[in-house]
Amino acid sequence: MSRGYLLNFLILVASFTMAGLALGQTCADVHGTTTGCAPSPLAGQTVELTGIVYVVPGTYNSGSVYFTCDAGGGMTFYDSAATVAEGDRVTVTGIVGAFYDEIQFASVSSLVVESSGNPFLPSPIGTGDLADGTPFLGGFLCVQGVLAKIVDGFNSQYTVDDGTGPAIVYVDGTTGIDTTVLDNYIGDVVSVCGSSKCYDGQGEILPRRLSDFELVCI
């Protein structure tokens, strides 16, 4: 590398550093590499993450977007004006923050749709691991175990337990999921997929639609 190119490279790196951009970060880096609902080690820093959208505005509320990350896990942000679809591959730049215990982009400075129609699959995780919190929170996760109900209402809460500890399943009323159908599965082994986050010190999973639930034949 010539001195001229080296100088330009160092200037470029310095400009990113001065702007507070954390280079080469993954979603797991943002969430922290240990278990638990701890604050992000990159809180207040600007990061750039790339992944595939699996929750779009209108699912839980008017603006929440969740996307998986290439190296595992995921991230979320709120933007009611975001025009994205499930399967869009996006690159998002923003400042890391949190809402209650959920690590997310507190603000987004850039959202670029790189491509559309990309496949994505949920990653399986033990209920105890999800409950304890994991570096893969924010990602599209799937738990399996015995279903129980703990809160009834517009927003209902269930637990799923595979024997390693119960994980919260939060059914947001905005999704339109018919919980009377789910109640028929109480006491049965089910598979539940959805977005994942920390809330009130515990990891939980949020199904997007009724098809994210499946009765498991054993």
Along the chain, the helix and strand elements come as HEHEEEEEEHEEEHEEE
Distance between the amino and carboxyl termini:
62 Å
Shape: globular
User: Helical stretch count?
Assistant: 4
Average pLDDT over all residues:
88
The low-confidence parts are: 1-19
How many strands appear in the DSSP assignment?
Answer: 13
Largest sheet: 6 strands, mixed
Strand proportion: 35-45%
For the CA atoms, what is the radius of gyration? 19 Å
Helix and strand content put the structural class at mainly beta
Portion of residues within helices: 10-25%
Care to give the gist of this entry?
The protein has 218 residues and is mainly β. It is 15% helix and 42% strand.
Care to describe what's here?
The protein is mainly beta. Helix content is 15%, strand content 42%. It contains four helices and 13 strands. Strands 1, 2, 3, 4, 5 and 6 form a six-stranded mixed beta sheet that branches. The longest helix has 16 residues. The termini are far apart. The N terminus is likely disordered.
Main attributes of the structure:
single chain; mainly beta; 5-stranded mixed β-barrel; 42% strand; globular
Task: Please render the helix and strand layout as text.
Elements: H1 3-18, E1 21-22, H2 27-31, E2 46-55, E3 64-69, E4 74-78, E5 89-99, E6 102-115, E7 123-124, H3 127-132, E8 141-151, E9 156-161, E10 166-171, H4 179-183, E11 189-199, E12 202-206, E13 213-215
